[in-house]
Design brief:
- The protein contains four helices and three strands, in the order ββαβααα.
- The chain has 102 residues and is mainly alpha-helical.
- It has two domains: 35 residues; 57 residues, no CATH class.
- It has a three-stranded antiparallel beta sheet, with helices on one face.
- The protein is elongated and about 55 Å long.
Length: 102
């Protein structure tokens, strides 16, 4: 469920139960996107992007970073390319730094 903080105008996706509790507070309102409105994926949290990816059955979505999730959801690359890109980035990040020359 999408909710919006009326003070900050920030929107985010929360589980339905949490959304129902928030909507009882005057500072929150429902922000469910209409079917015809475009959503800027870059504004969504990784959690919201993963929820969308799960709904679209994107394989390996759990391990994708935000950029890879956006690309996969936009169809800019295949799901397999997104997973491969995320995994190769992880392996680069995990390589030990070169030891200083003596």
């Amino acid at each position: 469920m999408w909710v919006k903080n009326t003070r900050t105008n920030k929107k985010w996706f929360v589980p339905d139960e949490q959304g129902k509790r928030l909507l009882k507070d005057k500072d929150y309102e429902s922000a469910e996107p209409s079917a015809d409105s475009a959503v800027n994926l870059a504004e969504l949290t990784v959690e919201a992007l993963r929820k969308r990816a799960a709904d679209k059955a994107v394989p390996g979505y759990q391990s994708l970073n935000k950029d890879a999730l956006i690309k996969a959801l936009n169809g800019d690359q295949t799901d397999e390319q997104a997973v491969t890109e995320a995994n190769s980035q992880d392996s680069v990040d995990q390589q030990p730094a070169a030891s200083p020359a003596k």
